[in-house]
């Protein structure tokens, strides 16, 4: 029980905690005791320090009752004293009222102390403070505001006043610490000089922070403005492009109507001609049938005179000179104009097919495989982003910024067909993006299995380093001439033709093409490169569109 009691005692008043509070350094004190030490009534005024470890605490520190520690104190008080102690011992008493520092020189009737002499280690009431100041032998003593723990204002090693401040270790020290102690040969200043120095530094820092805050606020306003502008631009372009497509549809619909009208007119013309020809043939048949009927009637007449008179009247004495029946020329119905219409539509289709399907029609957004990522890389849960880990790393960065060992592969590989994907790089100063046949796993007699990726003859990449673009393949590099900084990099593979092309995905301008003669599966590869001093921490992000047109 004694050990538990010691752990529940306040270091200032040496009594069981009353309203215990815990400082950030981990030490516990009574609320009134720590307020007395800090000479404050609970307001957020500094400077604050821990009487136990002497470290300075935040100026705007708010102390709160440690309810767990307070419950332990109440439990000890209600459990009763141990057998060796009489009833009514210290642990069974009620919690003490807030402590007040009393004058050490008032014997019969102690008065409330108003000052503390650090030289005498004595607390003084108003009367004894006046006597203390009047004695010439005591005028050199250091008298401060009253405190219940004068030792907190003294050096724990030499018990001397803390009159200096070590500028190297940033702690208050006494004169002996600087002369013969652990702070010997350290640069030390008077407390008021150190306060003036650090106050000036804090003011400068505050002004700098205020300026930075103002800059950040302006940056946020700019970002909000750009966000609004982007939304407006997107809506405007969406409307304009929709209007352009509407006009294209109008043109196509008009051309379609024209071609259909040509076909209808051709059909009408041909059918009308055929109907006319049929009418002529039917008239000839009718005339022939009439002549046959007349001839048949004459042949049946037995009166010779009447027969001759009838045949003479009908001009049938001479053989009939009938126009021959013309054979129908099927070539006259050859749909040549219809073929011309079809050819014109085919020409239009060929002209459009030069621009369709768009490259974006083949777009995909392969997810990144965290199992292939270098340990210093971090992959987002959706597998769409990769960036250099934000935690500090113990190893020194590689001297070669585009060392492809700091890479991650996509889960999906390509062996045939056409594929296209885009990676957002924005203002990222360093990155390496391309395709590879995958990690090279091999063992030799001196090393373990290695899966580090390398820029070699089975990888094709584009590297960007602070405005410079390089095409990398087979341990060789070629500098590229790029007019405008690339914000999105597009990659297209046509494995049937053995082509691998890199584009500025915003302008759809070709940056570089590789001839790829490879039968192995190709994996998209991303390398965010090393982050130095937080300048290259931006991620590489897979760009994604919903349901590409097929």
TrEMBL record:
Q: Where is the B30.2/SPRY domain?
A: 346-549
Q: Which InterPro entries match?
A: B30.2/SPRY, B30.2/SPRY_sf, Butyrophylin_SPRY, ConA-like_dom_sf, E3_ubiq-ligase_TRIM/RNF, PRY, SPRY_dom, Znf_B-box
Q: GO CC annotation: what is one?
A: cytoplasm
The record places domain B box-type at: 155-191
Tell me the segments the record calls region Disordered.
76-96
Give the protein name, as stated in the record: Uncharacterized protein
Q: Which domain of life is it from?
A: Eukaryota
- Report the PANTHER family cross-referenced here: B-BOX DOMAIN CONTAINING (PTHR25465), TRIPARTITE MOTIF CONTAINING 14 (PTHR25465:SF11)
